[in-house]
Specification:
Blueprint lengths: L4 H40 L63 H7 L24 E2 L9 E2 L14 H11 L6 H12 L5 H14 L1 H13 L2 E11 L2 E9 L4 E6 L4 H5 L10 E4 L12 E4 L1 H14 L4 H22 L7 H21 L16 H12 L1 H4 L1 H4 L8 H17 L5 H19 L4 H9 L4 H4 L4
Parallel strand pairs: 3-6, 6-7
Antiparallel strand pairs: 1-2, 3-4, 4-5
Length: 481
Amino acid sequence: MPVTQEFIESLMKQNQMHLEQIEKLNRTIAELNATIKELREQLNKNSGNSSKPPSSDGFKKAPKSLREKSGKKRGGQKGHQGTHLAVLSKPDEIKRYMHTDCTSCPYRDKCASKACVKETRNVIDAVVEVNITAHEKLCVEVCPLCGESKTGAFPKDVKANVQYGKNLQALVVAFNTVGAVSVNRIHEILGGVFNIPLSTGTIKNIVSRCAEKVKPALELIRQKLSETPLVHCDETGTNIDGKLHWVHNVSNGSYTYMTVSKKRGYEGIKSTGVLPDYHGIIVHDCWTSYWKFNDVTHSVCCAHLLRELNGIAENHPEQAWARKFKEHLLRMKRAKDKAIATGKDCLSVFTIQKYKREYDVIIKEAYAQNPIAEPVRKKRGRVKRGKILALIDRLKKYKGAVCLFLEKLGVPFDNNQAERDIRNIKTKTKVCGCFRSRTGAEEYMGLMSFVSTARKNGFDSYHAVKMVLSGQINQVFGVGC
């Protein structure tokens, strides 16, 4: 068969079609490999190498802690002031025991009066009692002085024929807020312990009344936080009537302020009322919306960065820069801790610049290992950078916020303060499932904001709630509310 021009052209067309098909298959294979890689990374994620909470780790082996080993033995160290169970008051009841041979002895009482105490053992127990106080309003028909009828008046807080006292109300609110106990379980527990018919509706009303009384304190907490030089910020999701809402937290070592919003981003953060007029330092987890506040100084949580670097080092062993950057962050932290321990107010300019130069060298190495891909022709949008390159970009762009803890020793290395303050929200959501209404969620945030603030100022949760019910909120702040 002679080879004609048509035959050659036909073969060339088939060859071109095969080449296009091979190119298409290669792209598909590359995409599938990338998907497999991402899925493997998700399977390997835990609370130690990502932002996943510790509760998501399940019962598998606990992830490696971000803390370095100190080299000390486990448990209390030499010279540690130990604590033990102690009797804090005089005994309410004393029981004496003699030898069993003395049980029927006629000289038992005489010997008991002269016997010495060989050993004393104390049993501390709680006695649950219900105290009912009857308030009687007396009437004198004829006053000896003026001849008129005189009738007494009940205290302002005694408004009903039968009502519950402040101790019981404070216990109900403490169970529902700090204890994260549901209304139904409070009804069951207190009904069994006190034998009081405390209905679920009454429990809800007690919590609502307490939340109403705490509102003046919340405004004072917000003002106090607005005036402080540094605050921690964080947010977490919760379920309200089957819909996702976001709890926004602004706090420091003395105050906690939490609000709830439908929005997670800028609008939700702004609704707290603290950051819009704030001009100090805010410590956060590098969530994009926080960078929209321009009149503040930003500080990034380095503990989150360590977790991300752990994830890259574990899933991509070839990324040597991730291990180097993690070690560099920890070196900077050790330098800061050493300076604080020796009573210094700041590190020298030379030391700070040295660490910053090393920072830039590692970032340059990271870009060399992860070159930016060329844009694909006829394809709109930005080139997909991937999580590794996105982290490198973030570290380069926000270098000042990452290194701020080194330049200002008063700035913490992490955002643990905000995470501790907001953790109870997750516990409450898991125990109760959800909040039934937006009002109930707002009441809970208000009460928890006050209780957390009171605990930071030396009060326990129960007495903090009791102060609210007694109108003594000013004891927490030292000023009138």
